[in-house]
Write a structure and sequence with these properties.
heterodimer, A: alpha+beta, two-stranded antiparallel ribbon, 14 strands, 57% helix, B: alpha/beta, 10 strands, 27% strand, binds adenosine-5'-triphosphate, binds magnesium ion
Amino acid sequence: MRSVIHILVVAATFVREMVAGSARNVATAFVQIWANKGRSILTTLGIIIAVTSTITVVSLVQGFGDHMTKTFRGYGTQYMVVRPYDPSGNHRHGVGRVTLDMGDLEAIRAECPHIHRSTPFVYARDGTITYGLETAEEVPVRGVSEQYQTIRNFFVDTGRFFGPIDIDSAANVIVLGRTVLKKLECDDSIVGQYVEMYGERFLVIGILESKGSNMGDDQDNTVMIPYSTATNMFPSQRRYFQFLVEATSEEDIAAADWEMTRVLRTRHRLEPGQPNDFRISRQDQTLREFDRFRNIASGVLGGIVSISLLVGGIGIMNIMLVSVTERTREIGLRKSIGGRRRDIMLQFLTEAVVLCTLGGAVGVSLAYVLTYIASLHPNMVPISVPYWTVILALGCAAGTGVVFGIIPAFKAAILHPIEALRHE
Amino acid sequence: MSDNGKTSAKLIELTNLEKIYRVGTELIRALRGVSLTIAENEYVAIMGPSGSGKSTLMNIIGCLDIPTSGTYSLRGQDVSKLSQSRLARIRGRQIGFVFQTFELLPRTTALKNVQLPLMYAQTSNKRKRAMHALELVGLTDRAAHRPNQLSGGQKQRVAIARALAQEPDIILADEPTGNLDSKTGEEIMNIFDWLNDKGQTIIVVTHEKEIAARCKRVIRLLDGRIASDELNERGLRTSAERPTSMARAVS
Ligand SMILES: Nc1ncnc2c1ncn2[C@@H]1O[C@H](COP(=O)(O)OP(=O)(O)OP(=O)(O)O)[C@@H](O)[C@H]1O
Ligand SMILES: [Mg+2]
């Protein structure tokens, strides 16, 4: 019992000593750093740059990543795009050749149990839309079926989307995006009216909800017509016929991919060993690819940071060695009035850590400024500095101070008091 | 309070102290068997030609250096066998060093300079004690001044206050007036006289006869040996007046 109390008392004294000593050392460090302002700034430049660049780049990558993930989730992650693809790449097919057709899609619908929904997808020529005196020029036109809105989470919020009857009859009906509406300078009352496109009249049956813009690409600057209408008007677009399909669940994406590949290869009579003449892009893969990119970027960044911290740390060590030499007499004096080795050691170590942490703090502030400036760009995704990077950066900076401050601090601590006091 | 050398307990006891420096292959015998006893409340001047070993002896007494051979006991404790950190502790609590070149920390106020030994010793009431020490040397009104705002004499008084702050057993002053003009030097010695009168043990290394004349005992070194060790009749005053320069600050 008594020994426990004794240990507690010793521990308490030690902690009190450490705290009191640290406060004094930090104060001394600030005085010292302030006395050598210019030198301190130059010395910590390496650390400032390391911290600033890391936090800025991480914030940007993070911002883009979050934005991308959110965008993909918003459009649904279960869908896949099936495109015609020329595996040889270099020689062109004859005009009018169709690599994917409705027969392919029907086969997929019939034989792939993991496909839930599907729609043909045709990019018609960009259209110029006229309504009264107003025109909206070069609007991307998508030819799709009614399944499209469910697969892409892109619904109308006024009027209706076209249905199977419009598609079977290749009706001249059109659904407008919000930006197009704005260009035509009209409101939702346009539903039920006619607009002109490709020299034909289209009945406006619905307005798409607003999706905002994705990395500078305005998602609302679009119109949709039945795919049958699009292929009737532009038969040559048939060779760009694509499918949008949705797997029964996110887990079934791989199975659906495999099923479609099998069905299409059979229908296209591809021998084993022959490459696919189509390509299936999966959103989960795109996301995964982006994650891979993010990881590589983090790795490269980590390397750059370690190198710059190393360089910065050597700078710190150098300046601390200079400082110890300059202040040899002070060290001798401190020893002569009762400073122990560990007191001197701690003093110089604290100085190195404070110097580095200050550099880190300056770096963090600069990073905030840089990300703010980046966020001013009109097409910039929302970015913010993640808190963990700030904590991590300051931690690394302080750690650099400890690692590279040890040798100078030790050098100071073991000085002989008399020799130190005799130092010229 | 005290009367001449036949005072209380032995404070410092040196027996056959040797200090040998090795420079390359050459051996320099700075001290060659010094035996010496100093009691409490003594006021000792150490004189001798340059290179006779005065500073070497002071550094050993001040636990800043260790002898090559011989023993040193401070208040009965054998100091020559102590660890670095115990020696630092003794320097901080039992010894007050005053240097020829003051050795004040630049960019640090007089008060903070005086507080420094108290901080290393983890003493409580640091501010109060430091202010008291400054009061003893008559510099309370300069507490917030930095060394570059003080005259040489004032700097040395701050250094004395720093040495006094921990109420040490001995004040060791190695040529404390060496960098001062004779009038300022006299002021510093007035403070020492007064402190000794109040019971402080003081050892002063000096080249000047006038300064040695104020002390109660004069030890002369020659080539690392004690050449003479005598009581100084003139130094045995009954009491020293409080230095006039300080009267203002205290009253
Ligand atoms: N660190 C050292 N290395 C080698 N020799 C030294 C060292 N310190 C002192 N000495 C030598 O020891 C001898 C005594 O030196 P010390 O400094 O004690 O003399 P001093 O009496 O204080 O002289 P001064 O009056 O000039 O200050 C001298 O010969 C000196 O050269
Ligand atoms: Mg000397």
